[in-house]
Amino acid sequence: MPNKLCIIEGDFDLSYLKSAKKCDSSISSLNELIDWYKSKSSERVAESSTGENSNDYVVINSADGSELCASLLQDMSTTYDIDATLINNNTIINANNNPNESKLVSRVSSSSFVCFLLNDFNQEDSVFLKLEETQSKISSILNAINNTTLNTSNTTMINNSSSRILIFGWPILNHCYESNLSLLNASDIDRPLYCKSMSGCFVCFTGFKKENKHMVAQCIKLVHYMGGSVRKEYNKKITHLIVKSTLSTKYKTAYNIGRCHLLTEDWILNSWNHRNQVDFNVNYEENVHSN
């Protein structure tokens, strides 16, 4: 089955990218960016030793992507009902892990990729939220089978699949175009990725109370959407500590060591406000000290 690049909500204007230093001045719309990317992808394949273009995509427009998710499930030899598939695979996993149960077989043999490209990640948009939920559930199906295959001796669960469902913001396509990368290599984690502005950032939170729980959860999502990582505990890998109270142990440790940026949640919100600025650097001094 061919890989599919699905455009949600159709073409949109990118003419403002002409001011960006790295972007080709002739690109003025998403469709043009896609054409440039596919052209560069073909050149990359032509220069490779195999000449195989396994990372090529058929471009499709869709209102919500539901038909492509159903097609991917069918390719995976499952039902169209994701929840029913999850229940079925959980039954298989439990049987295979229970020595008193007869072994069951689950087969996943597809290698289809569906990449959804959006012009924004809107937390109030039902289409985006549904895609995010679908990605999580399909990834759970594949991960469950993979983990059981690895951890269960003489298992009868079979997974020959490399299927993935990807959700990207258009800046990821721009990043791949500029960096001569395949979309399939843009992220190794199956969760929505809007841009790469926080790539390499390891973020930790401290001093937040229970009443701040919703706000922290939202900030964690935004960090992930921008390609950053979040850690619960402070360690030497942390690059940015988001501080609510300077009385916390994490803050005092980070302050004394002086190894990471000490910021408020406004740094995350400000970075998200610049998500469509492809040359925006979250670590520029004026950005980290303006909060």
Question: What does this protein structure show overall?
Answer:
It is a single chain. The chain folds into 2 domains: 3-185, no CATH class; 202-288, Rossmann fold (3-Layer(aba) Sandwich). Helix content is 39%, strand content 15%. The protein has 291 residues and is α/β, with parallel strands linked by helices. α1 (30-47) packs parallel to α5 and α3 packs parallel to α4. α7 links the parallel β9 and β10 (261-263). The protein is globular, with a radius of gyration of 21 Å. The chain is built from 9 helices and 10 strands. A 4-stranded parallel beta sheet has the order 2-1-4-6. A 4-stranded parallel beta sheet has the order 8-7-9-10, with helices on both faces.
Structure keywords:
291 residues; alpha/beta; Rossmann fold; 2 domains; four-stranded parallel beta sheet; 9 helices; 10 strands; 39% helix; 15% strand
Assign the structural class, choosing from mainly alpha, mainly beta, alpha/beta, alpha+beta, or little secondary structure: alpha/beta
Quaternary structure of the protein:
single chain
Give the beta-strand count.
10
Cross-sheet strand order for the largest sheet? 2-1-4-6
The rounded distance between the terminal residues' Cα atoms is: 48 Å
The value of Rg in angstroms is 21 Å
Number of domains: 2
What is the molecular shape? globular
How many helical stretches?
Answer: 9
Largest sheet data: 4 strands, parallel
Task: Encode the helix/strand succession as letters.
Answer: EHEHHEEHEEHEHEEHEHH
Which range does the strand content fall in? 15-25%
Look at the structure and give the mean pLDDT: 79
